[in-house]
């Protein structure tokens, strides 16, 4: 379980997060939604200790953020950052292999190699495993980064807007892989999403943020409503239901 | 004095030339070249940019500044003490560059080498100013233009240290490669980013200082070699570093041999030859760099 209590955050005098308290139970996909500037990415990077936590407390299982080592946390929680721009020329297999780093610290054994091959196969990357990252499409690159996080073999996986720049096939494919990881491998996935429809289709829970405060939490069915769109997103788009699932009419 | 193979077997004078002058010079070229190529590659990962290398990006100039300071303030100090001061100023100079380029947007990759060149130029100007004030201009040339004509037994051995410092980086090659994913991704994988960056920077500084103290600055080796290798085999340093070391050693050796023979009996400094060839290759690399999304 990821537990936040009383988390506030300031950037240059501006308060980004206001006293956030939130329990994310183990298992399933939680989508973090909200308008631009709501504090979604900040919240994610605080949980992943990439931004130093100044006020409040965050625990991931028994590990306390700010109090545990980077290495211990890296075996429990993986983060895929928003920008996956890598200036180094690396092959897909090498990138996925770095996911094993928290476990082998630079000396991969046979078990690590087996896990890397398994991750490559699962994410359909075997045919391009020896290509460089700058020689493959954006969708394939994004998949390679998720495969790296998968190879990290953590219970928790955090993703910051992984659907950016992906076409519909790439976006759906990636969300299905995440769904599959949650269902088959009991991963706990926390994902920042821009598109509410993707959140409605793939997430078990939704946490809506506005101006650094939690505006709503719950199952997509309960959370996504005309009121939410008006109050949180300041838009008068309507919700309709298709196959029992809420759908934003854009 | 010409040395032939048969002469080496029989003639003690030939043996003497070989051991005191020819062998050290060859070793110096190999060691310096290997060390420069390796530190160039590390620098490019620390700076997250392909187009910087220590010698032109402030480290070389900072090393010269250190020797200058040591020569003025402690003129009687031993060579290794000068090297120590020089390594310290190089460390400060390289760290300064990394801080300076930190806020630059990664979408503008050419800003970093531009800033680095200006930064190196500014430090170079400071060095020249103080050398002029201290009446040491004649030494300045020997630090800023690397050449091997002065290499003799007993006067190049610091380069073993430079090569060793570069060799140490191979032990943490995997960690430095993880760093190339970016600071956040590296921390997410549990890497001690500050420690690994610090070790890389220390290796760069020690190596650069040793080469500048012993031979003088040799530019472009650390730029051209890593770029060519990255294209061919990528940036996985565990595999790339040994190839970089070999290629750098070969480049400086060939440069020195050409410098000795092109205008014999005069010598062209290896820094000038490598610099000209490197500049041309660098331009070619810049223009053929594939645009990345």
Description:
- The complex is a heterodimer of chains A (250) and B (293).
- Chain A contains ten helices and twelve strands.
- By secondary structure, chain A is of the alpha/beta class.
- In chain A, helix 3 packs parallel to helix 6 and helix 5 packs antiparallel against helix 6.
- With 293 residues, chain B is mainly alpha-helical.
- Chain B is built from 13 helices and no strands.
- In chain B, helix 2 crosses helix 12 and helix 3 crosses helix 10.
- Chain B is globular, with a radius of gyration of 19 Å.
- The mean pLDDT of chain B is 86.
- Chain A: One of its GO terms (molecular function) is ATP binding.
- Chain A: Pfam families: ABC_tran.
- Chain A: Belongs to the ABC transporter superfamily.
- Chain A: InterPro entries: AAA+_ATPase (IPR003593), ABC_transporter-like_ATP-bd (IPR003439), ABC_transporter-like_CS (IPR017871), P-loop_NTPase (IPR027417), Siderophore_ABC-ATPase (IPR051535).
Care to give the gist of this entry?
In chain A, 34% of the residues lie in helices and 28% in strands. Chain A is an alpha/beta fold. Chain B has helices at 5-10, 12-46, 59-73, 79-101, 111-133, 137-144, 158-171, 173-179, 183-188, 193-214, 221-233, 237-261, 270-288.
Please specify the SSE layout and strand pairing.
The complex is a heterodimer of chains A (250) and B (293).
Chain A (H helix, E strand, L loop, with lengths): L1 E10 L2 E11 L3 E6 L6 H8 L7 E6 L2 E2 L5 H5 L2 E4 L11 H7 L2 H4 L5 H13 L15 H14 L4 E5 L7 H18 L2 E5 L3 H7 L2 E6 L2 E6 L1 H4 L2 H6 L6 E5 L2 E5 L1
Parallel strand pairs in A: 3-8, 3-9, 6-7, 7-8
Antiparallel strand pairs in A: 1-2, 1-4, 4-5, 9-10, 11-12
Helix pairs in contact in A: 3-6, 5-6, 6-7
Chain B lengths: L4 H6 L1 H35 L12 H15 L5 H23 L9 H23 L3 H8 L13 H14 L1 H7 L3 H6 L4 H22 L6 H13 L3 H25 L8 H19 L5
Protein name (chain A): ATP-binding cassette domain-containing protein
Main location (chain A): membrane
GO molecular function, one term (chain A): ATP hydrolysis activity
């Amino acid at each position: 379980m990821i537990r936040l209590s009383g988390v506030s955050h300031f950037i240059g005098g501006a308060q980004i997060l206001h006293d956030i308290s939130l329990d994310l139970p183990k298992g399933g996909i939680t989508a973090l939604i909200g308008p631009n500037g709501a504090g979604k990415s900040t919240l994610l990077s605080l949980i992943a200790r990439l931004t130093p936590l100044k006020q409040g407390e965050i625990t991931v299982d028994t590990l306390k953020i700010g109090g545990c080592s980077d290495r211990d946390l890296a075996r429990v929680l993986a983060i895929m950052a928003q920008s996956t721009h890598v200036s180094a020329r690396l092959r897909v297999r090498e990138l996925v292999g770095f996911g094993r780093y928290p476990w082998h610290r630079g000396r991969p054994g046979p078990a690590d190699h087996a896990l890397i091959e398994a991750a490559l196969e699962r994410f359909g990357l075997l045919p391009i495993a020896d290509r460089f990252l700058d020689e493959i499409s954006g969708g394939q690159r994004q998949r390679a980064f998720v495969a790296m996080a998968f190879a990290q073999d953590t219970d928790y996986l955090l993703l910051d807007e992984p659907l950016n720049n992906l076409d519909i096939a790439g976006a759906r494919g990636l969300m299905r892989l995440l769904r599959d990881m949650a269902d088959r491998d009991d991963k706990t996935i926390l994902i920042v999403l821009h598109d509410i429809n993707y959140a409605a289709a793939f997430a078990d829970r939704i946490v809506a943020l506005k101006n650094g405060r939690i505006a709503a939490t719950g199952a997509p069915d309960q959370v996504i409503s005309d009121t939410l769109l008006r109050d949180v997103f300041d838009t008068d788009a309507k919700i309709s239901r298709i196959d029992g699932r809420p759908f934003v009419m854009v | 004095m010409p040395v032939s193979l048969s002469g080496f077997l029989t003639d003690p004078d030939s043996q003497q030339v070989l051991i005191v002058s020819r062998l050290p010079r060859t070793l110096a070229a190999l060691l310096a070249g290997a060390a420069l190529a390796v530190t160039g590659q590390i620098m490019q990962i620390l700076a997250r940019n392909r187009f910087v290398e220590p010698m032109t990006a402030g480290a070389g100039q900072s090393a010269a500044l250190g020797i200058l300071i040591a020569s003025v303030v402690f003129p009687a100090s031993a060579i290794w003490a000068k090297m120590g001061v020089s390594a310290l100023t190089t460390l400060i100079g390289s760290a300064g560059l990394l801080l300076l380029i930190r806020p630059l947007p990664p979408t503008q990759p050419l800003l970093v080498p531009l800033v680095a060149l200006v930064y190196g130029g500014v430090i170079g100007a400071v060095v020249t100013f103080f050398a002029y004030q201290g009446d040491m201009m004649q030494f300045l040339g020997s630090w800023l233009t690397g050449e091997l004509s002065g290499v003799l037994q007993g006067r190049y051995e610091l380069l073993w240290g430079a090569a060793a410092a570069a060799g140490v980086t191979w032990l943490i090659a995997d960690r430095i490669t993880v760093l190339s994913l970016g600071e956040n991704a590296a921390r997410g994988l549990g890497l001690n980013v500050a420690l690994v960056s610090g070790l890389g920077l220390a290796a760069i500084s020690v190596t650069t200082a040793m080469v500048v103290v012993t031979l003088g600055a040799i530019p472009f080796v650390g730029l051209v070699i890593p770029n060519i290798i990255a294209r061919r085999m990528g940036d996985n340093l565990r595999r790339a570093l040994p190839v970089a070391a070999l290629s750098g050693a070969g480049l400086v050796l060939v440069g020195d041999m050409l410098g000795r023979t092109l205008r014999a009996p005069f010598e062209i400094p290896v820094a000038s030859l490598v610099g000209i060839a490197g500049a041309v290759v660098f331009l070619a690399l810049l223009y053929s760099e594939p645009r990345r999304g």
